[in-house]
Amino acid sequence: MKKWLFLCAVLFLITGSVMALPSYSGLRGLNRTVDAKPIGAGEFSLALFSFLGMSDDTRTAQLAGGAEEVTDTEYDGTWYITAGVGLSEKLEIAGRFSYVWNCLSRDNIAGREDLPGGENENDDGFSEASFFLKYAIDSSGDLRIGLMPWAGFSIYNGGDSPYVTNYNQYDGIWYPEQPMFEMRRPMIGTNFSAGADLLASLDLHPVVIHTNIGYHYFKQNFQFTDHRYGTSDSVALDMDVEDPVFHLAVGFEYPMNKLTLFAEAEWRHFMKRDYEDGNGQSYDDMIIIQPGIRFPFSSGFAFDVVGAFALDNFDPEWSDLGHHAYQAGGNPTNAYRANYAPFPEGYYPSWGVGVNLMYSNDLREDPGSALMSGTIIDAVTGEFLEATVAFPGTAVQPANSDPGTGYYSVEVPEGSIAVAVNASGYVERTETIQVSGGHDISQDYALQPVPCTIMGSVTDIETGTAISSATVTAQDVPVSDMTGNDGLYEFDLDEGSWTITASAGGYLGASESVDFVSGDLVILDFQLQSVAFEPIYFIVNQYSIQPEYIIILDYIAEEIIANGLTVQISGHTDSDYTEEYNHTLSENRAMAVYDYLVDYGVNASSLTTVGYGETRPAVPNTSAANKALNRRAEFVVETISN
Questions:
Q1: What is the pTM of this model?
Q2: pLDDT in tens, 198-251
């Protein structure tokens, strides 16, 4: 054991620089879950994982004074020494040596042991050598898919048998020299194991989710003599137990500035076991939950601190290799005994803690790199943003900016590299930068919010026809659009609450308040009410207002005031007299109307006047009746403010 630790320590000190870190398999990942993306061509990793599990299990001890419940404490120590290397950008291989220590500390019950304080039984040694291969089916983009086949072989060298054995006198459960099969993990490894997992990793920036799902196969060999206690009966057994297992592991990691938080769950379902005692409890499933913290260092080192707890219904009586049936006078078959065999690799401990030491680096010559850093802000408000800085087409891992300061930093390789900056609700920023090895780069980014789009139509409320040249504006911002012959408009707005107004000559305006969320497409149609005033008429050669038209002018004045109208007043005459005379007369008629409306209370700035003389007759001047229709003042609504 000391030689292995010394070798690992020497290798750790050879080089530096942070690379992807390994899982329990030696392949890139967390602890129990493997990342679908390989470590990278020419990169390697070394690690020493250690985990100590503890469980208190209640057992029935047949002592001299009768049956008594005892609570034994089990300790399961596991150490993995792993090494992995990337053969290409799609292929990664790894190897692992497993060293285990299994120990049972007996409950101190009078009559169970001669020695005061109880006694420990334990065994330890290298248990297995395993080999893992990972192939990336698709390692591009945020969703990565991979395949991981693996195989393991027993290398146990701990003594005469690979079981924890009772080396003391009879203690109410085990006889001397008998395997202690009712422990959670009485075995030191399995004879052979193999399997394959489908790997999937989803990068949600910054959270990354890993899923491993697969089929595992284990083969154990049991060679021992089962004794029927209280008699001289015994039977020598040499039997193989095969276990197909459905495996599912899920991991979540959240990279932060100087550490990574992660949590994992692993489920194993033993497909051939049928543990049911009629009380609703079954023992063919086991689940462990394992949160942890990873601390990476710039030298290439990292270490994990993890905790774990199991969700299970473990009962020692279901792990005695069928001894209960033999002790009861039966002659159980090997198939029956196999159903009660200890689980390969053991049952998960009730709880445990672990500390891992890891190192990664690149076997290839360093092409040179630089530290790229900066801040990311909102281009409109100047607020700091939580964003992701990615490098498409490279092996550089994306960097996440701190939401409080907008700061990010990342090591980038020498040369021309593409940069893509993304934040939720903002337009992606892309560019290509040139990196010179050893020269740090400061790159700040201001991201534009994804605009909101508003579009719709402006139509006449009575006829439904499109209104051309209508203006649609957003309150307090210089954003607007004018409709074409189809009456349609469209423009972009920033996120927020805006009042949208549509206006057109000869129509009452319409407004509506709308809340816009970044990236929204809002459809807003306007239907406008047309505004038209009937003309008033004058006596021959006069411009005084006749009494019968006072009610019309009062109505017009009220509408102008109420709706904020801007109106042009035009004066007209018939064709009698000279053109010069008629032009002056038409101006006087327009001014007479103007004066009346202003006296009524209309703001003078809302009115304009023009005299057209005889140039714009309503009807031909061919009769006295027609000439009366041409002696008039007309009203043209030019704009409406609300």
A1: 0.59
A2: 999 999 888 999 999 999 999 999 988 998 888 889 999 999 999 999 999 999
Q: Do residue 579 and residue 564 come from a single domain?
A: yes
**Whole-number Å distance between alpha carbons of 208 and 255:** 9
Domain boundary among 503, 530, 557: 530
CB 289 within 8 A of CB 264: yes
For all residues of the chain together, what is the average pLDDT?
A: 87
Q: Look at residues 3, 81, 128, 87 and name the one whose alpha carbon lies nearest to residue 359.
A: 81
Q: What is the C-alpha to C-alpha distance for residues 50 and 62, in angstroms, rounded to an integer?
A: 36
8 Å CB contact between 484 and 472? no
Question: By residue range, what is the domain housing residue 116?
Answer: 2-362
Average pLDDT of 315-337?
89
CA-wise closest residue to 285 among 241, 318, 321, 252 = 318
User: Are 250 and 380 contained in the same domain?
Assistant: no
335 & 218 share domain: yes
* Structure confidence by residue, pLDDT tens digits, 154-199: 998 766 578 998 887 788 888 888 899 999 999 888 899 999 999 9
Given 405, 424, 447, the domain boundary residue is: 447
Residue 396 to residues 296, 508, 604, Cα–Cα distance (Å)? 16, 60, 70
CA pair distance 563, 638, nearest whole angstrom = 12
> Which two three-digit tokens encode residue 284?
């063919």
Residues 209 and 235 placed together within one structural domain of the fold: yes
Find where tokens 């089916």 sit: 137
Q: Rounded to an integer, what distance in angstroms lies between the CA atom of residue 376 and that of residue 402?
A: 9
Rounded distance between C-alpha atoms, residue 371 and residue 411, angstroms: 5
Residues 521 and 558 in one domain: no
Q: Where are the alpha helices (DSSP H) in 169-303?
A: none
Q: Where are the beta strands (DSSP E) in 380-519?
A: 388-390, 399-400, 407-413, 415-422, 429-435, 441-442, 445-447, 452-460, 471-474, 480-482, 488-493, 496-503, 507-508, 510-516
pLDDT at 258: 82
In Å, how far are 4, 323, 501, 503, 511 from 640, measured between CA atoms? Answer: 88, 97, 11, 7, 12
